[in-house]
């Protein structure tokens, strides 16, 4: 077991299987020293854990937990092309999309679910640039979607 996966186990989480693509794309692509993931939804066993808009059917607290799940799915996608999460030199960028009720403005706090997990797992290597974007709707009516860019070591 890699040290990153051991750290995940200490946190009480298991890296899931890579979520199957919903359309014509790959879950992650390796380009030079970087892995770019596709947007990852809060899928468990091939199904969305929750659907709806944050600030309406989904609470901000639930959405933060879902963003954490999205980050775990993104790490699984990274591992699928990198081979080992111990190769991650740093998390470079996180982009989080939050399907938001019209009056919901707490997107940064929701995406903190992903950012905080990455910090817990990678420490200083998990500190990253980030965007947290409110959108009208996401695929399958998902409340949250997260994508990562990570840099790898040789």
What this model shows, in words?
The chain has 154 residues and is of the alpha+beta class. Helix content is 31%, strand content 26%. The strands form 2 sheets. A 5-stranded mixed sheet has the order 1-2-7-5-6, with helices on one face. Strands 3-4 form a two-stranded antiparallel ribbon. The longest helix has 23 residues, at 60-82. The two termini are 19 Å apart.
What's the total helix number?
3
Oligomer: single chain
Radius of gyration equals 14 Å
Amino-to-carboxy terminus distance: 19 Å
Could you give a short account of the major beta sheet?
A: 5 strands, mixed
- The overall average pLDDT, rounded, is 96
Give the structural class. Answer: alpha+beta
Q: Could you give the count of β-strands? A: 7
What coarse outline follows from CA principal-axis ratios?
globular
Helix-strand pattern: HEEEEHEHEE
- Estimate the helix proportion, in percent: 25-40%
DSSP strand (E) fraction? 25-35%
Question: Which regions contain 5 or more consecutive residues with pLDDT less than 50?
Answer: none
Strand order of the largest sheet: 1-2-7-5-6
Task: List descriptors.
single chain; about 150 residues; alpha+beta; two-stranded antiparallel ribbon; 3 helices; 7 strands; globular
In short:
The protein has 154 residues and is of the alpha+beta class. Helix content is 31%, strand content 26%.
